[in-house]
């Protein structure tokens, strides 16, 4: 591969907009944990499991939401 003097590649250290899972984490936090205090850890786990089940049952919803972030 030849080097091009007019082209310089740049690899960012951290780019959440290029990492698809970041949108999922943002959605999960908005729906599950924002402004909520859970008294027991298992309650958080139950809510997260329900969320993930919903996402797995409707993958098109995840695809649609991927580009809103």
Set out the fold topology.
Layout: H1 20-33, H2 41-57, H3 59-66
Helical coverage, percent range: 55-70%
**Shape, per Cα inertia axes:** elongated
Structural class: mainly alpha
**Helical element count?**
3
The count of DSSP E runs of length 2 or more, i.e. the number of strands, is: 0
- Any idea what the radius of gyration is? 18 Å
The major sheet is characterized as: none
Order of helices and strands: HHH
Strand proportion: under 5%
Mean pLDDT: 82
First and last CA, distance: 36 Å
Low-confidence stretches: none
Describe the overall structure.
With 69 residues, the protein is an all-alpha fold. Helices cover 57% and strands 0% of the residues. It has 3 helices and no strands. The protein has helices spanning 20-33, 41-57, 59-66. It is elongated, with a radius of gyration of 18 Å.
């Amino acid at each position: 591969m030849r080097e091009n003097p007019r082209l310089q590649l740049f690899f960012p250290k951290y780019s959440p907009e290029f990492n698809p899972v970041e949108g999922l984490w943002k959605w999960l936090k908005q729906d599950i944990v924002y402004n909520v205090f859970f008294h027991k850890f298992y309650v958080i786990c139950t809510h997260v499991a329900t969320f993930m089940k919903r996402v797995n049952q409707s993958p098109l919803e995840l695809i649609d939401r991927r580009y809103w972030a």
